[in-house]
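G., the chain you wanted modeled:
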Amino acid sequence: MREGFRQELKDLKAEVVAIGRRCADQTELSVRALIEGDADLADIVIQGDDEIDARTLGVEEHALEVMATQFPVARDLRLLHSLTYVAWHMERMGDLAVNIAKAARRTAGRKGPQTLYDLIQAQGNLVHRVLDAMLAALESGDLELARKLPELDEPIDHLFKQFFRELARLQNEDDIEWASSMVLASRYLERVADNAVDIGERIQYMLTGTFDSVEHTADSPAV
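Predicted structure as tokens:
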């Protein structure tokens, strides 16, 4: 019976990791739609959000079922609670990808200053790096990698601030309207990375039972 319980925990964790990968793909596609002005690709991202919502709800329901039937305690209970928390943060990432896709639809067919496209692409690349690290930390139970996420997030914040400096240089009214959508997209990318950092903090708690930054040894093998 307990072997079945351990397998349920592994399956649940694998599903959360899979949802995270789906959100990372959605984010990457939304950035591509924005840069290429591809409204059809933006629609694909928007339509794909229902799947993420449904799978996230499935994780929560499965976790509640396991809690009700297996009576987990200590580290197992912490794992179940944390996986639900992580899944809902990933669902928010999916929503942010949808917001970027909507910005892509608004700006499709219009061409703005190349500098802002370059900034969005650079920011998207950095966000993808943060998401890859977050997923690796979650899947492997890598405490040090989870703690590194805030450091990886810092350049993304700097690029977002740079958007406003570039926006201030624009004179053409049409460019300013277009750039406003790009700035919002940049903000959504920043929020995706912020959610990844929050997940990193939860991974630390999942592994150590604490949120502080003091070095700890995980009290159980990663599931």
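The helical segments are 2-36, 39-47, 49-70, 74-107, 114-140, 143-168, 173-208.

Shout if anything looks off.
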